[in-house]
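Recall from the previous lesson that a structure prediction takes nothing but the amino acid sequence as input. Here we apply that procedure to Aldehyde dehydrogenase from Amycolatopsis acidicola. The sequence below is the only information supplied.
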Amino acid sequence: MTTATEPARILDRDQVFLGGAWTDSDGGESCDLIDPWTERPATRVRYASKKDIQRAVRAARESFDKGDWSSKSMAERADVLDEIANRLEARVDELTTYGVVEVGVPVTLSRMTQQMSIGLFRAVANEARAFSTTEERKRADGGTSRILREPAGVVAAIIPWNGPLGTVAFKVAPALAAGCSVVLKSSPDAPLAPSVFADVIAELTSEGAIPPGVVSVVCADREDSEALVTDPGVDQITFTGSTAAGRRIMSLAGDRIARVSLELGGKSAAVVLDDADLEQVMASLPMGGCMQSGQACIALTRVLVSAKRHDEVVAALKAALGALPMGDPWNEANILGPLAMERQRDRVEGYIASAKEEGATIVLGGGRGKEEHGFFVEPTIIDGVRNDMRVAQEEIFGPVISVITFEDEDDAVAIANDSVYGLSGAVYTADLEHGFEVARRIRSGTVSVNCAAMDFTLPFGGYKQSGLGREGGVEGLAEFFETKTVHLPL
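The prediction returns the following tokens.
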């Protein structure tokens, strides 16, 4: 019988974080967080009520309008971001534990993820120091005008459960660098890493490095979260999550023309051209498709291959995925852990069943594996998939790869683009420059050639229903500024 390895029960969070300090909730309920490995409650967290959210927005509005934070220089705010990174780094062991307990990520990968996320704070700080907020331009009449970039105001940052600290860095770090005040809304399924961030903000607020009111961190259900999106005190909404939720947020924000940036779903295609080196393909494609047990919007979940190379690619992929160690996430040897929650496992299993019903074949996996507990789904390869099937068109968010056969290169590009999504993708070929040209034809925000690269210090975002706007790099920082033109006399 398998024995569950686990840390001691995590300290419950019985308060909400408003305006830079932990405080009692105005009526919010508490809810258990279930450990996806043990299937037992790991901690209990207090949800923010609708009134709590209104208090958070009011504090952010007052702090922004007062200008104590927005009036600081970019360099001063960058120094604070570096200090946030330093203090998060001092708690990386705790954050690593939360990555395992919240998302099911094996401990070694969880540590890498937390460290990468902390590095994003420093990357934003460096971008901020080089960012110019004033520019002079000549007018057609010979006069001079000044172009000013001013902080957008109060930002509602709404993050998902599958990468909580990383999306805090993606959204809150550039918003703070720009001089905005922020209300961060964490997922009820992953509130722990954001609560550590709140602890750090509380320290810096008490020390005077961040003015009171600038940052709130709330955990709330969907109904109360909509109060944040519709609050007239919020100037900009930045959201990462499902396309369905993004569509709802955009609709609500449209009623009052609030600024919106969205990072949504993906159904990314990996195009394996006939001249691709199979060893090079297998060096990145298996984890490109099954990273974080497939719980990643950028996962390469459609593998496109010609009939000529179909059999050898499927055989190699089957061997590679079948060799990925899956099990106890506290075992450092494991690469794949459980899915984050029971309903996510049920969702993934439903997609696998639908593929069978539509005539596809499961050539690897499809079950729950050997563990006696934990929300596991084995790495799964589905062959004989048509691009109009549900498993090819809808985001599964599990370790499931669909193999689709194309006739020629043009057909491969057409299949890759035959999706409502356009977030990521890959091209494998012996000719790097030809791969680049194929990548240009794929309607997607990121495309890798002969790899599955991830560098979130560069611009990241999607085409079509994968979102609006960009995160990462100078482009991600620029999202949190308004542009003002001031005309001066001749």
